[in-house]
Automatic annotation (TrEMBL):
Coiled coil: none annotated. This is DNA polymerase III subunit delta. The keyword Ribosomal protein does not apply. Signal peptide: none annotated. The keyword Metal-binding does not apply. The gene is holA. InterPro entries: DNA_pol3_clamp-load_cplx_C, DNA_pol3_delta-like_C, DNA_pol3_delta_N, DNA_polIII_delta, P-loop_NTPase. Residues 19-136 form the DNA polymerase III delta N-terminal domain. It comes from Fructobacillus parabroussonetiae. It catalyses: DNA(n) + a 2'-deoxyribonucleoside 5'-triphosphate = DNA(n+1) + diphosphate. The lineage of its organism: Bacteria, Bacillati, Bacillota, Bacilli, Lactobacillales. Keywords: DNA replication, DNA-directed DNA polymerase, Nucleotidyltransferase, Transferase. Belongs to the DNA polymerase HolA subunit family.
Length: 331
């Protein structure tokens, strides 16, 4: 089931009483929440629309709400987030589990319970989880891959009558790590900047979109592996000058080298490797591009030297820039 399917059910007044929403794309999950909220007219939302975070408030209020009929309206919507009781580590009391099962098996006409499990790993052995999975309409909103993010970006630009240079698109994807949600956060200021010309340039992306720390670490690792000593030292110095803590910067650099070693050991598609490592496939793609250029032995040597630099940072009162300069000379 897709968001468009949900929209069709709302338009046709063909709404089931239970939905289970899963996924890892924040922007799409927020869109789903707004879509479910739209079922209730704005004037009735205070009485017939509610949201509960199980990890913060438990389940009692949500059960009380979903077992009460709609208040002067056709529907009541109750959204439940962080349902950790559906995972292997979560648990409800016997009375609460019985009450929740009753809610699912004997719903009040007009009431909709929407469970947002997001990226929780549900325990399918549990009776409660099995019941939810059997009864619910399921909406899965996985993280978009690089191609899908690029297509979505192009669609948004065309809707607004904007153009964007190819190198600008690539840089935007790099700076947001091809995250659809992060791209959406950055796009409004680019559109505002290019309001007159209707064309977003690479320079605009460079000026307005701050690189994520992972992208900065990738750039620094690339300079290190290329042996561009002066550029690497200058970049390191600039990052520290701009407020990046040396230990954190070293950890990011170490993480980038570790990622290269991990990716080198994995086969399969970028998506499969990304899932195995718990990272966005775009980072796998960039790592594989680097590995085609740099010998694995050099990557391993760099990892060990950066690890040694971290140990020295933690155990000795040595200037971090001096340590990095020494590392670059030795590497």
């Amino acid at each position: 089931m897709t968001l468009q399917d949900i929209k069709g059910q709302i338009d046709n007044q063909a709404l089931p009483d239970l939905y289970l929403v899963t996924g890892e794309e924040p922007a799409l999950l927020q869109k789903a929440k707004r879509l479910f909220a739209s079922i209730i007219p704005e004037a009735d939302q205070e009485m017939n629309d509610a949201s509960y975070d199980f990890s913060a408030v438990g389940l009692d209020d949500a059960i009380a709400d979903i077992t009460a009929p709609p208040f002067f309206g056709d529907h009541r919507v109750v959204r439940l987030t962080n349902p950790t009781f559906l995972t292997a580590t979560g648990k409800l009391s016997d009375s609460l589990e019985k009450a929740f099962l009753s809610v699912i098996e004997h719903p009040i006409p007009g009431n909709l319970l929407v469970i947002f499990a997001n990226d929780l790993k549900l325990d399918k052995r549990k009776k409660l989880t099995k019941t939810v999975l059997a009864k619910a309409e399921r909406l899965d909103l996985p993280r978009l891959n690089e191609r899908q993010v690029g297509q979505a970006l192009q669609g948004l630009l065309e809707q607004r009558g904007f153009r964007m240079a190819a190198d600008a698109k690539q840089e935007l994807l790099l700076r947001t790590q091809a995250s659809y949600s992060k791209m959406l956060q950055e796009l409004p200021k680019l559109l505002a900047y290019a309001a007159d010309s209707k064309e977003i340039t690479r320079q605009a992306v460079d000026d307005l979109v701050i690189k994520e720390s992972t992208a900065q670490a990738f750039d620094l690792a690339d300079l290190v592996l290329k042996g561009e000593r002066e550029a690497a030292i200058r970049t390191y110095h600039d990052l520290v000058k701009n407020g990046e803590a040396p230990l954190r910067l070293n950890a990011l650099l170490l993480g980038q080298f570790r990622l290269l070693l991990q990716v080198a050991s994995l086969s399969g598609s970028d998506a499969e490797a990304g899932k195995a490592l718990g990272i966005h496939p775009f980072r796998v793609k960039l790592a594989r591009q680097s590995l085609r250029t740099y010998p694995l032995g050099k990557v391993r040597d760099g990892f060990l030297k950066i690890l040694d630099m971290e140990i020295q940072m933690k155990s000795k009162a040595v200037d971090s820039l001096f340590l990095f300069e020494t590392f670059m000379v030795n590497f």
